Amino acid sequence: MKIAKNTVVSVNYKLSDAQNNLIEEGSQPMVYLHGGYENTLPKIEEELDGKEAGYSSTIQVEPEDAFGDYDPELVKVEDRKRLPEPLEVGMQFEGVAEGVDDEPTIFTVTDIADDKVVLDGNHPLAGMALRFDLSVIDVREATPEEIAHGHVHGAHGHHHEEMEDSEEGDHFRSKPL
Q1: Strand residues in the chain grouped as ranges (E)
Q2: pLDDT tens profile 117-173
């Protein structure tokens, strides 16, 4: 089956920077709903469109087509007393960046010095050209429910039942990057 709109694609991947320094090698396949549902980068969808299981490729995605350019305006220095303790580099907090239409931004603690904390609202991969080694392992038709919800259900996808049965707030986690 060829990859097209409303197909579920399973891809093994390896992510590196432009100098081929490994950033992440997926221990599980990336499984996404193909066709503009914003489940993966548009350049990855563009590369895989019309391909079949067994197809492999390496693509380079420039910052503007990945996580954007690094914006120094998204770096803030805050008084340590404004943040909860204990505080560690790598912790993340949701906040609002000035001049960004009051949209919530995830800020990562990048430095702590005495009574000041540096918070960075840029995506950790912002400003980087990225290389993706892609290998398609499976393609199937999406179910009507997956199409209606705009994402994959089941193995390596999204499970509605688990969220309904889980502890309140269990699906909101802060994890150091």
Answers
A1: 7-17, 22-25, 30-33, 56-61, 75-79, 92-96, 104-113, 116-120, 130-141
A2: 999 999 999 999 999 999 999 999 999 999 999 999 875 554 444 443 333 333 323
* pLDDT top residue among 37 and 158: 37
Mean pLDDT for the stretch of residues 95-122: 85
User: Torsion-angle region of residue 143: left (phi > 0), alpha (psi -120 to 50) or beta?
Assistant: beta
d(CA 109, CA 90): 5
Instruction: Give the chain's end-to-end CA distance (angstroms, integer).
Output: 36
Nearest Cα to Cα of residue 109 among 82, 142, 138: 82
The Cα 108–Cα 177 span in angstroms is 8
Contact assessment for residue 150 and residue 33, using Cβ atoms and an 8 Å cutoff: yes
DSSP state of 164: H
